[in-house]
Each structure stands twice: as structure tokens, then as C-alpha cells.
Amino acid sequence: VRSAVELHRGQKHIASTSKGIRTERTGSLGCIGWFIVIVSGFFAALLFPITIWFCVKIVQEYERAVIFRLGRITDRKAKGPGIFFVLPCTDNCIKVDLRTVSFDIPPQEILTKDSVTVSVDGVVYFRVSNPIASVANVSNADFSTRLLAQTTLRNVLGTKNLAELLSDREGIAHSMQSNLDEATDDWGIKVERVEIKDVKLPHQLQRAMAAEAEAAREARAKVIAAEGEMNASRALKEASLVIAESPSALQLRYLQTLNTIAAEKNSTIIFPLPIDVMTHFMRK
């Protein structure tokens, strides 16, 4: 165990030493490089009134400047905001915008998990979190992020069925954001938000879904009507039991019905016949 630990420490020390050597070699300009830098600085100081317009650089609050000196990045941190000086012959300054950028994902024809072809588009919001990585690790961070967003949209929606696509847009957007943010981390890009804008279905599928929804609504309406009739029949049964127990209640109900008929048809004259007269014949 002790030998294994010592071997691991030795490998770690060698790796850290080689990493330090690699960093030192990358950051060093060499003798020729320093000679060119000194000559450039000498001429810049000699022609100061003219070279001042080439040496002074200004970046805005929302910008950062990545400086390459003889093809090498000078500092580990980007310059700005404000004013700084560069050498006109040896330094190359690239400005990077740190503001949030949004772009639309073009409509993509996607085959879902249940073999339905849909057209989906969306919008992505991202910003540059590491200016040096966005310049040194990828040729065009904006264009690469746009292409990656299209392929990520296809890959994520290809694992979903139509019902999940229509009902779980927030979950799909969150999954796309996680995948994009993880893939663009090495490029110095931070994906802040992804939204699904529109899902277009084929016309035949739209008609089929509309017919299915209409049939479901009709079935629900019939169930509700049947439940209403059942409740009404129970109420009528209870009312008939109450009326059977009290003859006067039947007389009041009869008078209420006559009042309703008289209110609806005013030209009709009704002569009510007392029920007590009818009961005598009904008994016989």
C-alpha cells in the first residue's frame, strides 16, 4: 500500500511539473520574441506623437480585450473595461462582447419517439463567460453555438413522444439548456435560457386530434347529462314520497302548476277543479 501511495505521489508530482513546464514554455516569448518586442517599443517611443493613436485602446464596460503578442496570449485575464496600451507591431487586440445574445433556432423537422413528424423551433439566450476561451478554443463561438443548438434540439426531441412534447415544454427546454451549457463550457459560453417557441403538427394529425377531443367532450357531456337525470329522478322519488304522506302538499303543487300555466299563456282561462271532488270518483 505504501509503495502504491508513493507511486501515486510521484506520478502526481511529475504531472504537475510537466504542466508547469508546458505553461512556462507557452508563456515565454524566447530571445527573438523579446528582441522584436524591444525593437517595437523603441520605435513606438521614437515616433510617439504618431504611434499614440495605434498604442491606445479603449474597451466599453460590456467588452473585454484579448491581446496576442507575437501569437501568444499575454495575460491569463482579458483586458478592460477602460483604456490600456499595446505595441503597434507585435500586439493583436480582439474585442469580445459580454452581453447576452439571443437567436432563433430555425424550424426543425423532427421524428418523435412514437414516429410522428413535427416541426419545432425555439430561441436560445447565451453570453460569453470566458473571453480568452471563446477566442482561443473555437474559431467562431456564436456560429458554433447556433449549429450546436439545432443538433441538440433534434437529439432531445427525438427521445420524446408527441404527448410529452406538447405537455412538457419546460422540461424539454431545461434539458436542452443543460446539454448546451455542458457542451459549450470549453468554448467560454454560458447558456442562460432555452425556450420552445412553436410546435407545428401535420394537418391530418391536427384534424384527428380535433376529432378525438370533440368525441371526448361529447362523451363527457353525455355522462354529465346522465348523472343529472339520475339525480333528478332521485329527487322526484323523494318528492313523491313526501306528497304521498301529505294530501295538502298535492293540492299546493296542483295550484302552483296552474299558476305557472297562467303566467306562460295569458290568453288561456283555466277553471281549476278541486281535487276533493275527483277523489270521490277515484275511490268508487
From TrEMBL:
Keywords: Membrane, Transmembrane, Transmembrane helix. Signal peptide: none annotated. One of its GO terms (cellular component) is plasma membrane. InterPro entries: Band-7_stomatin-like, Band_7, Band_7/SPFH_dom_sf, Band_7/stomatin-like_CS, Stomatin_HflK_fam. It holds the Pfam family Band_7. It is found in: Membrane. Residues 54-213 form the Band domain. It comes from the Eukaryota. Its main location: membrane. The chain crosses the membrane at residues 32-56. Belongs to the band 7/mec-2 family. This is Stomatin (EPB72)-like 3b. It comes from Sparus aurata. The lineage of its organism: Eukaryota, Metazoa, Chordata, Craniata, Vertebrata.
